[in-house]
Structures are given as C-alpha cells and as structure tokens.
Design brief:
The protein folds into 2 domains: 243 residues, no CATH class; 86 residues, Roll (Pdz3 Domain). Helix content is 50%, strand content 11%. The strands form 5 sheets. The chain has a 3-stranded antiparallel β-sheet with strand order 1-5-4. A hairpin with a 2-residue loop joins strand 10 and strand 11. Helix 3 packs antiparallel against helix 7 and helix 7 runs antiparallel to helix 10. The protein is flat. The two termini are 46 Å apart.
Length: 425
Amino acid sequence: MQRTLVLIPHEIAGIPVFGMGWLLFAILIALALRLLIAKLQGAAVFETLSREWPVWALMSGIVWFVLPRVELTNVDQEPIGMAIRGYGVMLLLAVGSAVGLAAYRARRQGFDPEVIYSVAPWVFAGGILGARTFYVIQYRDSFIADTWSQTALNMLKFTEGGLVVYGSFIGGILAGSIYLYRKKLPWLKFGDVIVPCMFLGVFIGRLGCVMNGCCYGGRCEDNQFALKFPPNSPVYEDQWRSGELLGFRFDPETRLITSISPDGLAERAGINAGQKVDTLDRDYTPLATASRDIPAEDARTGVVATIDGRRYRWSPRELPKTALPVFAAQILSSVSSLLLCLGLCMIPVQRFREGTVMMLGFASYAVLRFVLELVRVDESGQFGTDFSISQWVSICVLAGSLIGLGFLYSRKQATAAVSSPELGG
C-alpha cells in the first residue's frame, strides 16, 4: 500500500506553492512568455490574449482558489502540502493505456484512430462521473461533513479512491454513445473496438486499488495469496472496529463477545467471552504527541473500548503493526481483467457479427465480478439477500448481454458497412 507517491510541500523558501505563491507566479511568467512569442511571430498581443484568456484564467483560478483547499493538513489543521496519490497516477496510466490500445485496434479494423482520440475525453469524463456517482450513492453516509462545502469536496476527491467499475462502464458507455450518435458512427463496431480496452484499464486501475488499500478481500490464512495492510488503511480500521484485530469477536446485534483469540490483546487484558462491548472507538489521545510534519491521515490513533463498564485502552505501539491477512482480491481482479482483455483482443472480429465482442466482454466481466465478490468483504448484502450491489448489477449485465447476443444473431446480417469512418463536422 502506497497512498501518497509524492508530497509537494506547502511552502518553499517561506513562500506558499499554491494560492498566491510559486505556482501562480509560474503561470504569470508562462503567460508573459506566450505573449512575447506571439509578438515575435508577428501576432497581435491583444488578439492573442483575448483568444486565450479563458484558459489562463481557469488555470489561475484553480491554483489560487481550488488547490489550497485540497492540501493535506496536520493534526492542527495546518496545511503541509499536496499529495500525488498512487491511485490517481494509476488511474491516469489506465486511461492512457486503454486509449492507446483502442487506437491500435481501431487502425487494425480500418477506422481512423483520430476518432478514438476524439471520443476518449467523452468516455473518460462520463466514466469518472458514473464511477463516482455510483460510489457516492452506495456510501453516501461516509461523505457527510459539518458543512455543505466540505461534503461536496469529499464527494469530489476521486483521485484518493472511491470509484466503482460498473459505474464507470455505465457512464463511459452513455457518454461515448452520445458522441458516436452525434457523429453518426457505427455504435456496435466501435463497441467491439473499445470494450476489450476497458478491461486493460481495469487491470491497471486495480493495481491502484492495492496502493490505496481499498477493494480488499476477506480474512484468510497468511500465505502467498494474502495481503497485509498497514495502520490507517480501510481494512485495518474495519478489523479493529469488528474486534478481530484486538483478539475477540462479538455479535453486532447483542454486542456480546462470542470468542477470544489465544494470546491476543483481549486475552492479555483479561477480557472474556460473554462480556458485552458497550463502546469501541478511536482513542485520539496519541495525536497530542504526533509529528506536525506529517499529514493527519498518517498520524496513528489508539483504540479505546468499554466492556462491561470497564474501559480498556490500546496505544498505537500496542496495536498490531499490520492488519490481519486478507485475500488479495485486487490482484485477482487485476489479473483476471488482463486475461479477459487478451482473450477479447484475440477474437477475430470480422468472423462474427458486429457487437459480438462487446457483448461477450460484458457477459464475461459480469461472471468474473460476481465470483470476485465472493472473496470481497467491503460491500454488504442488498435487498434482503447476501448478494452485494455489484453482484446484483452483474446479474443484470449478464442477462442484458445474453439478450443482446440473441438479438444480434436473430436479425438479418447487414450487407454493407462503413469501413473507414471519418470525423464529422
């Protein structure tokens, strides 16, 4: 797990990097150089500025107003810098790789690759919007803050994780379909080109999940298929909140302890089965001595529990250094998505009806995702069943894909097709 790859400091030589600082100064210098070059090339400075000012104003506004508000802070809420997240970097690599493969496949199928480069921003924007919307709706309670502005900011922090693959598929396909419809391009043919590339993006994106510590699997034995995440990771918090990391299990409804792990923290503290867990919360006392040079998200807290009226505390030093081993669901998802991408790319598109590869891709991923959810524990059952929301969506996607395949092969085969579409006006 490596949530933050680089931390850009808040200040350099006593001057802020963001807001009214170095980065804004760099933009002003770049603007001056741009106008100087335009003048040397014989262009009118005012005309150049009037044409390009929205871009420069937007960049300046983001640096001045937006970036200072998303800087990380220490435990005293003092800004310490901007984090370049591993998840965000892998997300960009996933998009770039998927677009590159799509352009290659488009050229092989007789399409102009420029069409892919033109539709890519639509698919990316729609995919991010769909993925984040799906996640926010699913985990809406975790985004609520004291103010509307902070709540909105929490919802927008997608580079730190919190994107649902199915949401990205839905949003990306809708956005891409709108573009293809407007340009009067063959939807099914482009689906055969693009869909396999989406799974290359999933392959890389799931590696970002490993770096972020999200989308983890359930408890397992400590073996080659297991991962151990550090403190402050989602799985670490889930395990101490369930009591498992502390060496006991309890019934969520009755709050009664059902079992005690041998030589665990609970047993050493004299806690016994049958006792009632009144409260189980973070202990923020250690933050008083935490370093002010690190982000608050990296400052470790302890755990405080009230059991049968008696209070127990465990400091960060007493707590385990890592979470208990969990199944490497992210790696399984990543590898299976890569295999799915390779398998779909090997299908000779010309031998099958338009849309076949696309439908097979959706159906195959639905089966893979349904099985993957069996080893994941970060999503609860929905609609009164043990099936997670992703499993229910998988069932719908599989059914829709099979119906789509049936429709494709029940209609008459078209005798003519556009082989090399160009961008329209």
